[in-house]
Amino acid sequence: MFQAHLMTELSIPGAFRLTPQRYDDVRGYFMEGFRGDVVSEAIGYPFVTGQVNWSSSRRGTLRGIHGTTLPPGQAKLVTCVRGAVLDVVVDLRVGSPTYGKYELTRQEADSGTAVYLSDGLGHAFLALTDDACMNYVCSAAYVPGTMIEIDPLDPRIGIPWPLTGPPIMSEKDAGAPTLDEAEAKGILPTYEDCLAHYAALKADPWRR
User: Which of 45, 99, 136, 142 is catalytic?
Assistant: First the structure.
């Protein structure tokens, strides 16, 4: 009865924008928030859900850039379910043809637009409204000590945040290293390792 998402790969390999079909009637509207078969077909291997998270942010809150070391890795499907955000994908895979590049997506709750990030990609967003709520469908459970934080204001990356003043940030995000500093510390995944990881997931999606 209902059509699946339109899932489009972005300029960063392994990052996708999902646009669901919206159905309106006198009651309101209906959208499919997530379809595992659509995501799995696009990425080339089954997307396994290991954890679901929520966050709520005040207007002007900047979260990220966050990634996960490999191993264990953690892919994410992120959706704004209340309010609006400027969502950003950053390629943290050293050696990738798009290393250090970013893609912007404006997410609004009524649109249902979502973004999928493969293992090795970084995620950040700026809350454009008060009480901006995000839903994260993650491929694996969080493992303490495996999160990567990168300065979202790093001029080398150059994300054009529409800020009217200093952003609201956690101490950890405000003190995060730049991309160059993180690479020098050896904490970033390599593109080669990520490709091998994707191939292994295609052979055995439960290997996580």
Answer: 136
